[in-house]
Amino acid sequence: MRTIHKVIGALFLVAVILATQIPTIETGAAPNSDFQIDKTKLVKYTGTATSVSIPDTIKTIGAEAFAGNTTLTSISIGKNVTEIEYGAFKDCSYLTNVSLPDSLITLGNAVFSNNTSLKKIILPKNLKTIGSGVFAGCDNLTKIEIAKENPNFVFDKNALYDKEKTILYCFTEGAKSTSYSMPDSVIDIDEYAFWGNDSLKEILFSTNLKEIPAFAFSNCRNLLAISIPYSVKSIDSKAFENCINLQKVMIPASVSYIHTTAFDGCSKLVISSDSGSVAHSFYETWKTTNNIEVTDGNEQNDTVIDSVGNIYIIGSNGKLEKVESGSNTATSSETNSALNDPSNVDYIPQSDPITTQEEGVLGKTMIVGSSAVVIMDSPQMKVIDNIATDEVYDDEDPDNITQITDKNTDITLPKEAIIDDYITNYAYYGDTDLYTYTIPSNITKIGDFAFARSNLKSINIPQSVTTIGYAAFYHCDNLTDISIPETVTWIEPSAFSHTGWLNSWESNTSASDFLIVGDGLLIAYKGNSKYVNLPDNIKTIAPACFLGHSEILGIMIPDSVTLIGKEAFKDCTSLQEIHGANKVVTIQDKAFENTKIK
User: Fold this and answer.
1) Is residue 8 part of a domain?
2) Which residues pair with 459 in a beta bridge?
3) Mind giving me the DSSP string for 334-345?
4) CB–CB of 53/78 below 8 Å?
5) Smallest Cα–Cα separation from 347: which of 197, 236, 248, 449?
6) Residue 562, Cβ neighbours under 10 Å: how many?
7) Quick one: pLDDT at residue 222?
8) What CA–CA distance (Å, rounded) separates 470 from 265?
9) Tens of pLDDT, residues 466-506
10) Structural domain contains residue 284
11) Residue 119: which CATH number?
12) Contact 449, 430 (CB under 8 A)
């Protein structure tokens, strides 16, 4: 018995010694010794408390100060903290309660990323700046509340925006939404905005979106199909990385840059694009690199199948409509019709909308700029022009009759794509046999997309012309010789985009940074100066002329300028000074949108 007592006594002594050596999890406020502090900056937290209050002496929480802490469940940040740096609380997988002070102004990149237990957070009233990926990987975050006094942000339908909804910061995954329709006000998406969202199957993009940034949709593993709008110019690195169920991506010719890693890990990827476009070249290279064979039939198929076998039609802008449920992968006879829907022609068409004939379809619609355009093949239509008629076209041979008469007037309908003094929209769109063309001397206006994607090599615009429409010569790649007379006073955006003529000017280092044509019309700028002095011979700054030149801080506009076109300086995000401009009479819509002009 004495031996037993001795053993028990010895074990008790060992237990006491061990108890003093094994660290315990603290449940109260963290001691000061757990904080590594440099003046007013919290550099690192080394403790193991579940609940931590940051002292009021702290103004900055340093990068990764709490990163990877798996005991922390609640954090109260001191009332004088103004900035939280990169990844300060990332990978804190049990953090559920966060109290941000009103003093906070800046949240850095990835501050709360991969906090899988975080369900709700309140952004304080003085917060002004939010970095990229702040909530990326927060699988259960369902709600972001904005303090009533905060004028900078809004949370609506699971998405966090700036107040005007021009910037989309993130889309919360916790709501488990399968569909998201982006408002057309959105111009920019932050990097990592949708990162790791496993719920979304479809995303309908803003028609004003400028680019798809890096990692924006990485690891969206159930995303099925997307249609990139014509407004988008670039798709950056790993934008859709590991979207393993992404089956159909429609990319317009407006996209001039796609990073080589943009679709890494997308094993089911099929890209639909215009022949000769950047997207088409990218996809051909991508297929070769990934040893993937895709037939033309696959590329034209307008259906996708999700992970449980549901079949969807891909409609306009990537909208999905389920046509069959379950695991049966047989394609319904109805699923081949979506691409023949005349409403499913977005921006620049995937094929020539005029020459593609469809029984019973007289016209198709698309969006050009901010207008809806109806495209019709006029030689095949029975046009009466609101005039009471005695005769109509012969149904068997409509081309033989070119006149419709009423009792008083003979009218000759045009057989060419010219009406009176106007070359009509899409008149010679996609005409690969068109190498030369003489514009009649009575023409005053060249319509939207009039010669786009034709094989024109040169064009002499007569002095009768005053207006050149939107994308009139878009992607006339061989067009190197252009003569624009002084009578031209107005040119819409993208009129000469992707022409040899414009490309030559852009690459010519000895050429002026200002492309001035017609009657003092500035249509393009290629410089990179912070302060820009416009030449004195400019009368009009054309629409979208300086669009996206974020390096410009100030600009001098001479008194010769009387008109500033639509979106002329849009997204010149650093522009804060304008000098001169004393004779400007007209400033069109959104000319200075998203600048610092006050």
Assistant:
1) no
2) 482
3) GGG-GGG-TT--
4) yes
5) 449
6) 15
7) 92
8) 37
9) 999 988 999 999 999 999 999 999 999 889 999 999 999 99
10) yes
11) 3.80.10.10
12) no
